[in-house]
Design a protein that fits this description.
- This protein has 9 helices and 10 strands.
- α7 packs across α8.
- The strands form 2 sheets. It has a 5-stranded parallel β-sheet with strand order 3-2-4-1-5, sandwiched between helices.
- The termini are far apart.
- It is of the alpha/beta class.
Length: 236
């Protein structure tokens, strides 16, 4: 019986520069060894691989999409090549596959079928923001997206704010970039003056922005320019 292939979870940095400015060179060796990729979006995955100068025509590679539109019954088919001994790379649109991005389903399926899952090293905006925030990095929770509509949204903010205070646990959030300004305004409206808020945008880019202040201080400042910029928000 042939050995199974491996599933490599491949970080994809945000931005259009050389990905190996932020990724280890060893990632490139793995990527160049693969010809089958499970991706959130074929167009952006092809662009990422092209920037990485993989040394072969992109058209020679095989791509299969895994995203919110993939029917659950079709996910099993994505690992058929791995069961035949062919390794694959999982690439999300921008970021770490399986962390606030597609990939967990295919990794879970690989574990169930006895396929080795190999995470590759890369920058995580969640951890980078926490590292630079000055807030508690010993106890923290990544909560993803808050509800879109009020009053559920501000109720959720107050609930997480309470956890930040009572448990001394940093609370991390993301938002669709075009809704960043609204979420920032909701934090200012819902939170107590002494609550700390970190805003971290465009991490590891030349325009990186990271600031931590009490809510009372944020209310006295001009709002940060974070519209349509990938951002992390932290309450502490």
């Amino acid at each position: 019986m042939a050995a199974y292939g491996k599933l490599y979870m491949i970080p994809c940095p945000i931005g259009e520069g050389d990905p190996y400015d932020t990724l280890p060179a060893a990632n490139g060796e793995v990527i160049r060894s693969l010809d089958y990729f499970i991706v959130e979006n074929v167009r952006t995955a092809r662009r990422f691989l092209s920037r990485g100068k993989i040394g072969r025509p992109i058209d020679d590679l095989e791509f299969a999409e895994l995203n919110e539109h993939t029917p659950p019954q079709e996910i099993d088919q994505l690992i058929v090549p791995l069961l035949a001994g062919r390794s694959a790379g999982m690439i999300s649109e921008a970021g770490m596959p399986g962390i606030a991005d597609p990939g967990a389903e295919i990794a879970a399926l690989a574990h169930r079928r006895g396929i080795e899952v190999v995470p590759l090293v890369g920058p995580s905006s969640i951890l980078l923001a926490l590292m630079a925030s000055g807030l508690n990095g010993q106890s923290f929770a990544f909560n993803g997206y808050l509800p879109v509509k009020d009053p559920q949204r501000r109720d959720a903010i107050r609930r997480f704010e309470k956890r930040a205070h009572t448990e001394r646990q940093s609370q991390l959030f993301i938002e669709a970039p075009y809704r960043n300004a609204r979420l920032f305004a909701d934090f200012l409206a819902a939170c107590a003056p002494a609550t700390m808020l970190t805003v971290a945008a465009d991490l590891m880019s030349p325009d990186q922005y990271i600031r931590t202040f009490p809510i009372a201080h944020w209310r006295q400042m001009p709002a940060p320019d974070i519209n349509k910029r990938p951002a992390i928000f932290i309450l502490g």
